[in-house]
Design a protein that fits this description.
Dimeric_a/b-barrel, 9 helices, 8 strands, Dabb, Stress-response A/B barrel domain-containing protein, 4-stranded antiparallel β-sheet, HS1/DABB1-like, Alpha-Beta Plaits, 30% helix, alpha+beta, 280 residues
Length: 280
Amino acid sequence: MIHQALALPRLAHPFLTRGFGSNGGVFLHQSRTKHQGVAFSAADDDRIASSNSIQTRKVVEHVCLLKAKQSLLSEEKEKDMLDYLYTSQYQMRGIVAISVGSIGDKNSGDFTHALFVRFQRKEDLEMFYENPLFLKVLNEHVTPFCHGLTNVDYESEVEDDILSIFRKGEEYNYGEEFVLLVTFAKNASEKNIKDATDSFAQLTSSLPSLIVQSTQGSNFNKSSEEFTHAAVVRFRSFDAMEIFVEGREYKDMWRSQFEPFIEKSVALHFSVDPVGTDVM
């Protein structure tokens, strides 16, 4: 089952796309093809993935993982917390896309909630950290009910297209957000890291019937260096995610290319469901 795969201490099998900020080439795996089911044709995916190279644009991704104090976080307060985080995008400049949710299944980091925010530039991210409105949301609706925050920031690339950049359109309105955090060992060589991330990218780029979009990169947040790399993957559905992480190719790739070279990893996921549309 999916929860068993994601709860292992060293992560039975986690995620990425461009070579994790390495000097490797860009691998994109997103598709305009609508696919809400889980039926999967490898031949169809091969045809899609082998299409001509496309123009890309750099984006900056922010991941914040929370550890809630369950004894203090009532259902109503949890809803308010998620609503305030989600609707903050309507009052802050620089936010390109956002998703937030309650994490499904137990994970090795004991995280309970996750926030993903996309920016166009690093400067926008820096302004976000210092924004009085965001700080107020944290101080009044998040930190009183959480005993730990983990932030990871990285640069990646997406297709240079409005829908892809802003994560807009029908296929972005549903699905499962998958977050992977990895710490490569200090004795892992650049080649070890590049080989691992490239193998992951090549595998995921061949499966657009399961994946809407995936980004990954090296963590540049100097105040939160617990993890060296991160990835965020939007699956078309929970079932699509389960097909991927339970697949033999992914498991073999993780065990041979990642597991020998990492110190720790955390994988988690949450359902994509807009939690608020009105400004709080």
